[in-house]
């Protein structure tokens, strides 16, 4: 497929995007272009995702920015193609972001894209999160499509600072996952999760986030 054929498949940008990204909308468009071209070529995003690139991926992640404060240091665990970390860094640019990703090819792609977008609030760390204990401390950890909530808690609680928050972007399974993670929640000294539904309307499908705070 040529770049032109690929770009013809991409979902038209919803009006809501300009509202969410404000004066960073041009950078968000450039990110969407990277995802649709090299992101697909390098295997970070399936071509079948192109018709829902904005709503299902970029905006679905960006709406979580309402849970991020300007002074947060956010660790995006298993960032892959920068989701949710890059849309968050655009929608809440005052905070700092660390994209944590173990796979070399993905880290190379992230480095190229973050450089090209000129995101000086984003750092990339090639590592598994379990290996970052005593090296990184985050006020917020985000994760989307990485592991079950139970595993995420075991991996991520050690890199959360005092009163730190784990924001796990989950689908319909969130309540079920919370029940299965009861033991890990208690052991990691986290409060009972709050489930937040963000972005709908205008998003047809809300982003469901389990928010767990360290006590
Ligand atoms: C299915 S992808 C999801 C990528 C992105 N978060 C998204 O929503 O599109 C899962 C990612 O988690 C990464 N990963 C797997 N084990 C990890 C670990 N122990 N620590 C950090 N990242 C990990 C993988 O390399 C992969 O990029």
From TrEMBL:
Q: Where does the UniProt annotation locate this protein? A: Cytoplasm
Superkingdom assignment: Bacteria
> Does the record's keyword annotation contain Iron?
no
The entry marks the following residues as binding S-adenosyl-L-methionine, namely: 78, 83, 129-130, 144
EC?
2.1.1.-
**InterPro entries, A to Z:** rRNA_ssu_MeTfrase_G (IPR003682), SAM-dependent_MTases_sf (IPR029063)
| Gene3D superfamilies reported for this sequence | Vaccinia Virus protein VP39
Q: Quick one: where is this thing mainly located?
A: cytoplasm
Physiological role: Specifically methylates the N7 position of a guanine in 16S rRNA.
Family, similarity comment? Belongs to the methyltransferase superfamily. RNA methyltransferase RsmG family.
Specify the protein name: Ribosomal RNA small subunit methyltransferase G
What is the species listed in this Swiss-Prot or TrEMBL entry? Answer: Brevibacterium daeguense
Gene designation per UniProt: rsmG
